[in-house]
Amino acid sequence: MPTNRILVIEDESIIGMELQFRLQDIGYDVLDVVPSGERAIEVAFAQKPDLILMDIHLEGEMDGIAATEAILARQDVPVIFLTAHTDENTLERAKNSTPHGYLVKPFQEKELDIAIQMALAKHKMERKLRESEERLRLVIESGDDIISVHDLDGTVTYFHAAKKYNLPAERIVGLTPQALLKKIAPEWQKSFHYVRETQQSTTTEMNATFQGREFWFNVHFYPINDKNGNITAIATIARDVTDVKRLKGILPLCAWCGKKIKNEDGKWERLDTYITSHTEAIVSHGMCNDCQQKFHP
Fold this sequence. Notes:
The longest helix is centred in the middle third of the chain and has 34 residues, at 109-142. Helices cover 40% and strands 25% of the residues. By secondary structure, the chain is of the alpha/beta class.
């Protein structure tokens, strides 16, 4: 198993040397011991350590907290703060820079080793979680569905829709069901209330208009439960079934010419025009064998 590479930032040379020896005795590889925040940034970018032990109070104008913020802005690396001071202001600044640990001097070798192991393990889990979230994001964004999460009052807490609907999340998150769905709110709320009361998933069909175009959706509702099985939120996945819905049922073709169809407004229109407006299909024109024989014998 590869040895973890550690960068030490400590402005007191004797303490830095002692810390280096301790780390090497435990089995870690110490890349360098540097005394200033400015130098810490340079070495961190050049050496890419697996972990940084950062003294908060350093020589020079930049302290360890500022150096950590500069490093983490460009590099994903766990940082453990070291300090002999625990005043509230310093502790608050340190917390805001999101370190992976905090050791108060003096500390024992065992405490140091445990802090490093926990920081490395935490960082590894965080990285896996980010990678998992990124894969999930790519799957969601490459799909054609509308995905949302709602609190138990129905307010939207998460939202993603395919680009064709022109519904950016910032316009939707925070909306109530009535504000979001308007005409179809009663259908939506009926299914929502069913899931909230029974904690069982369900599916309903509803329509909505975006950008002047009508869409039909199969909307699946799923309960989201905590570790104790209590429902905390409800997720919905709306799948576009417009093409299937529009050509569902009886199509009223003209019995005489067979070239026209009665649309939703009761008006007769060309069959090819109807197909184009009700599906994603593109109509091309040719000549069948019967017409070929009739008009070009």
